[in-house]
Design goal:
Distance between the termini: 68 Å
Largest sheet: 8 strands, mixed
Strand order of the largest sheet: 2-1-9-8-10-11-12-13
Strand content: 25-35%
Radius of gyration: 22 Å
Helix content: 25-40%
Number of helices: 12
Length: 461
């Protein structure tokens, strides 16, 4: 299926083409395209009977599951705009976020939230509550990572999602015979990217069941993973025989990790994208080089004063606030990303975010440059550099490391590779992420480091 031939909801298109082909594999439960199309129609009818109208905003609070997927598709089919919420967000944060977004309803499949918003139930009803397919209607609101502050909600049309999907489907040669694992949450743009690639390619969507991620990988041919997930996969006794390709994201990607994966027969792809671009914008086969490839088909990238600017049909229509769209591009359609970058042999090289930059003794420190050096060690799977306040230097670098190496050993290994002002003055194991985020919040990591410093000072009093 191509964008040019898409004139109806994608699941209906595949229902007509290959009604008995497998659309979803949820372990013990599988659905054909015929069964999926009927289930979506009945969920849409159920939402319609509960008062959901075209253009309403529904906040969907859920982890990944077959029920959550049917809710997403059913809500979109009945004309609603879907705002995915991380079920681990506490009520206090939801209380800050939701008033500005003003959802009309909430569907809480996770349970436990106390929100003063009309609630929906997942209650399919015989019939078809689907609205006509309109590619240019707003489909989703997706919260940005909030890695440097309070998240914003990027509003994407169906067309934007599908343009992003088409570029990745072409790069990875995805076919109806593939099986893409829903390994990342639908409330995150990376999870939504999986959904739209699946729908565009007519592949099978594999949803993990109670057996967990690695059992689901055994039923998959393609997966989107963060580096930590790939590292854990490579340390399993046996790799999934069917798995052929992995799209990596969410953090700096160690070259040694992709070398091991390629040696094991897994094709690894690295890329660059953001919530505002509906996921991946640039991508290529991963190797030892630090670039993220050239812009994929339909996307444009330019460097202006060291900053990455992007223009694309996959861009969000704006940021949603109080029922209206706030512009995110200039008059010519360019988005200033806030990321520092440059071209290197025809590939985009991302140096880091401008707002991560800090100064130490008058020298500018870009955390991502240090992270790229440290993650090159084969025993390091993930690392973050954050600043801590220092009376003499203004700020000093602190390293938070995940890996199988002693921190003193890593510090000794890194010392000759870093300038004096780049060398971390403290090293800690990376604290666990209890929020289940794909991209770690640097604001939270800085606060964690500050708490360690305060605790140390209190212990000395």
């Amino acid at each position: 299926m191509s964008l040019a031939t898409l004139t109806d909801w994608p699941w209906r298109g595949w229902q007509r083409r290959c009604p008995q082909a497998r659309a979803i594999d949820n372990g013990e439960v599988t659905l054909s395209w015929q069964q999926l199309a009927q289930a979506v129609a009945e969920h849409a009818q159920g939402f319609h009977q509960q008062g959901v109208a075209a253009g309403d905003l529904v906040a969907l609070r859920s982890a990944n599951s077959l029920a959550a997927l049917l809710a997403w598709l059913g809500l979109m089919a009945c004309g609603a705009r879907v705002l995915g919420l991380n079920p681990q967000l506490p009520d206090a944060q939801l209380g800050q976020l939701l008033p500005g977004l003003a959802p009309d309803f909430v569907l809480d499949l996770a349970g436990g939230a106390c929100l003063e918003i009309p609630t929906l139930a997942l209650r399919p009803v015989a019939g078809d509550g689907s609205q006509p397919w309109q590619q240019d209607q707003i489909a989703t609101l997706t919260l940005t990572s909030g890695s440097t502050g309070l998240p914003k909600a990027a509003a994407h049309t169906f067309s934007a999602h599908l343009h992003s999907a088409a570029a990745v489907v072409g790069l990875m040669a995805l076919t109806p015979g593939d099986r893409w694992l829903l390994s990342l949450p639908l409330f995150h743009v990376s999870g939504q990217g999986i959904l739209w690639r699946w729908l565009l390619a007519g592949a099978t969507l594999v949803i993990p069941d109670d057996a967990g991620l690695y059992a689901a990988l055994a039923r998959s041919s393609v997966a989107s993973l963060v580096p930590t997930q790939l590292w854990r996969l490579l340390h399993q006794p046996v790799l999934p025989a069917r798995l052929r390709a992995v799209l990596l994201g969410g953090a700096q990607i160690p070259a040694e990790l992709t070398r091991q994966a390629e040696a094991a027969g897994l094709h690894c792809y690295c890329g660059y994208g953001m919530t505002e671009t509906a996921s991946t914008l640039c991508a290529r086969r991963a190797d030892a080089h630090p670039g993220v490839g050239a812009p994929l088909a339909g996307h444009q990238v330019k460097i202006v004063d060291g900053e990455i600017w992007v223009r694309s049909p996959a861009l969000a229509s704006g940021y949603w606030l109080q029922g209206a769209l706030m512009p995110l591009t200039d008059r010519d359609g360019w988005l200033r990303t806030g990321d520092c970058g440059r071209w290197q042999q025809g590939e985009l090289l991302v140096d880091g975010r401008r707002d991560n930059l800090f100064f130490s003794g008058g020298e500018s420190v870009q955390p991502e440059q240090i992270e790229r050096i440290l993650v090159a060690h084969p025993a390091v799977t993930q690392v973050f550099i954050v600043p801590k306040v220092d009376a003499e230097y203004g700020h000093r670098a602190v390293a938070l490391v995940e890996g199988s190496i002693g921190l003193e050993t890593l510090a000794d290994w890194a010392a000759p590779k870093l300038a004096g002002y780049q060398r971390p003055v403290a090293w800690y194991p990376l604290p666990p992420d209890h929020a289940g985020a794909i991209k770690r919040s640097r604001v939270q990591l800085k606060a964690w480091v500050a708490n360690q410093t305060q605790a140390c000072l209190r212990s000395q009093v």
